[in-house]
Specification:
The chain has 279 residues and is α/β, with parallel strands linked by helices. It contains nine helices and eight strands. Helix 1 packs across helix 9. The N terminus is likely disordered.
Length: 279
């Protein structure tokens, strides 16, 4: 198992003056750079917002955000990666600027939405960067449509409910994230007054069993980097170690001095980790 652990400690040492406690807060993401194209696509009964950055002809990078969030949380990573990659971001069903048609949230449904989006964009295969629910969507795609993924950078995902830290329900940092996303939802959503119902629907999905569970991981052939933050408030370290051990092609990387929100807290190092894996 330890042969699978890939720790790029140098990425996470020289970033903030108070690196030892940067994981205890969530900085705001900067503004998004200018997109090559953006808009909404009608698919699976919803209007799904998406944007494309960069014009490289190689395999694009699809970045899928976590629950309650939206595409713009990837701004720091997009600004860097778009210089030599095509990068696709989107607002998951019901999140950000995308609508929902009243359907219950499930990882199978969200994965189907992203497949439909790739089809509309005429994209056959992507490097998938998934955070939290985005990683869980990636695990579904790895099991059901592996031909669409060149690789999977899977940060803070879980495949069983016992992978969730029960203390997350009272964690102040995670509570602060919910408050941040409530404000963004009010500013971005077509239904700005419905955050409480939205939160309830997503939380219900968080509490349901994940498709495939641990057994399905044993047959995943997509090159996978299982990424775990040292001080993750939501996902247990041992759970990520287990996922990396079960996926034959997987490695494990620990992001030091970061929490569930590493992309906010250490944006340059997070991007460097993505680059090191996919390049």
């Amino acid at each position: 198992m330890f042969s699978k652990i890939l720790t790029l400690a140098a990425f996470f040492v020289a970033s903030a003056v108070h690196a030892e406690d940067r994981w205890m807060s969530i900085p705001a993401a900067p503004a998004m750079p200018e997109a090559a194209s953006s808009g909404t696509s009608t698919l699976n009964g919803i209007e799904m917002y998406h944007a494309v950055y960069g014009d490289d002809d190689g395999t694009p990078i699809l970045m899928i955000h976590g629950g309650l969030a939206h595409a713009d949380i990837w701004s720091a990573q997009v600004a860097d990666l778009m210089t030599d990659h095509k990068v696709i971001v989107a607002d998951t069903r019901g999140h950000g600027r995308s609508t929902n048609d009243g359907s219950d949230y499930s990882y199978d449904l969200l994965a189907a939405d992203y497949l439909a989006l790739l089809d509309q964009l005429n994209v056959d295969k992507v490097h998938l960067v998934g955070w939290s629910d985005g990683a869980n969507i990636g695990y579904v795609l790895s099991q059901t449509h592996p031909e669409r993924l060149a690789s999977h950078f899977a940060h803070a995902g879980n495949v069983t409910l016992d992978g969730i830290d029960p203390n997350v329900e009272t964690n102040e940092v995670f509570g602060g994230y919910i408050e941040m996303m409530a404000a963004d939802y009010g500013a971005m959503s077509p239904t700005p007054e419905e955050f409480d119902a939205f939160l309830s629907g997503v939380a219900t999905m968080w509490g349901t069993s994940k498709p495939g569970g641990t057994e399905a991981l044993k047959s995943v052939a997509v090159p996978t980097l299982v990424v775990q933050s040292e001080f993750d408030e939501a996902i247990l370290m041992e759970h990520s170690v287990m996922i990396a051990d079960l996926i034959p092609s997987a490695e494990l990387q620990i992001l030091e001095n970061t929490s569930h929100f590493a992309a906010f807290q250490a944006p340059n190092e997070y991007t460097a980790a993505i680059r090191a894996f996919i390049e």
